[in-house]
Amino acid sequence: MTLTAAPRTPAAEPAEDDTADALTLGRRIRERRAQLGLTLEQLATAIDRAPSQLSAIENGKREPRLPILRALAAALDCTVDELLADEAPSERAALEISVERAQRGSVFRSLGIPAIRVSKATSDDTLKAILGLHQEVERLHRERAATPEEARRANTELRAEMRVRGNYFAELEAEAQRLLGAVGYSGGPVSQRTIAQVAEKLGFSLHYVTDLPHSTRSVIDRRNGRIYLGANLPSRDARAPILRALASLVCRHEEPRNYGDFLRQRVEANYLAGAVLLPEDATVELLSAAKRERQISMEDLRDAFAVSYEMAAHRFTNLATERLDLEVHFMKAHESGTLIKAYENDGVRFPSDALGNLEGATVCRNWTARTVFAQPDRFNPWYQYTDMAAGGTYWCTSRVEKAKEGEYSVSVGVPFDSVKWFRGRETSHRSTSDCPDERCCRRASDGLTRKWESAAWPEAATPTSLLAALPTGTFPGVDAHEVYEFLEANEVR
């Protein structure tokens, strides 16, 4: 396969705490070197390292391994513990560290402005002004995000856990196998009758009603062993809604104590539904064969198990890392450009707010998840390479699907080095993204701005969720009064 340009190499991004430690260590080494009257080149020679390596350490861009740290301590006539002390070596160094840390953080990056080089010539007043401005911007970001703060924090923590686990939950895979084994599943797409048998084995009957509470997808009556679902389910496929309802029983969910519990239960319910409808062994067998043939395709996975494209894409992320040794990312974006769901363990940098929250952020217009909406051919998948200014070249496959809220895209992507396993790698479609720099796709040209900024007065189609407070209650967003009245009206007497 021949591409028009070489791939960009992803750049590793250290955690902010690690960055702070590296900056403090670097400043302590530099200050100690200055006290001894050593040049950078002299100290580099003393520890048998290139001056560029030592410069990266002193600037906090590289954390030295223990042998180098010991060599530095010996050359600087101090102990390793002295070099690793938490406090900055001076008031000036503390100020420099604070500014450097601010410039490397998510708030500063979201502004899309270049960082300044902190040097001896940079005055204390300049550094204090930069730090003060950054702290004020950060305060405003936190103030704006204060209403859904708990949900955002819980969501960020859960996403981090999913990344560490490769989005693979062995305990839920085992539960799915147990449920299918109990009803004698032997292969092929899992039928709706099979799902009904699973419910029966768990002691529940299914009831399709026209008056299901508007704020719910399903309601379980644990007292009478009933599961209520809407009679007008999309395409009459009730398999996933039934399984999500049963997940509360299989996973032994209790009433969520906080928003973190609520989010985790939703993730587990969706995971279990996918693990039952696309059984692990059969799915891995299909994907492994496709990998050997270099023809992995979300469409093939969807068709083989008669599920939605979104579920197939989700399921692929569950198994890609643990069973196929592939790091991937997934995203669901609304036609407005708003990011709805996202997962990654391949280093791609999703758009986020200053606090690192993804959902609700605006996706770059040049990413596959956005360019797919402009394609007239909705029957075939859309493939695209994207060169990211934030690091690396990624390949994505994307499809547009419809929901009552409008159209949305579902995309699965991998770093350039992994594209060899996928169908669609030969695509010539390629774009470049310089986001979060606003000049990439969010800011109009200077000519258009000059012409229209004083004449345009648009009215925003403000979504109600933008102004609404975070839903409260035991199950956020559910009208408990309506649910209890529904159960009372439908109780078997």
Radius of gyration: 27 Å
Order of helices and strands: HHHHHHHHHHHEEEHHHHHEEHEEEEHHH
Q: What separation lies between the terminal Cα atoms?
A: 69 Å
What composes the largest sheet?
6 strands, mixed
The CATH architecture designation of the domain at 16-144 is Orthogonal Bundle
Strand order across the biggest sheet? 5-4-8-7-6-9
| CATH homology group of the domain at 16-144 | lambda repressor-like DNA-binding domains
Number of helices: 20
Q: Based on DSSP secondary structure assignment, what is the total number of beta strands?
A: 9
Structural category? alpha+beta
* Helical percentage: 40-55%
Low-confidence stretches: 1-6, 8-19, 464-470
**What does the average pLDDT come to?**
85
Description:
With 493 residues, the protein is α+β, with helices and mostly antiparallel strands. The chain has a domain of 129 residues: 434 Repressor (Amino-terminal Domain), CATH 1.10.260.40. It is built from 20 helices and nine strands. The strands form two sheets. Strands 5-4-8-7-6-9 form a six-stranded mixed β-sheet. It is elongated and about 90 Å long. Belongs to the short-chain fatty acyl-CoA assimilation regulator (ScfR) family. InterPro entries: Cro/C1-type_HTH, IrrE_HExxH, Lambda_DNA-bd_dom_sf, TransReg_Diox_bact_type. Pfam families: HTH_3 (PF01381), Peptidase_M78 (PF06114). This is HTH cro/C1-type domain-containing protein.
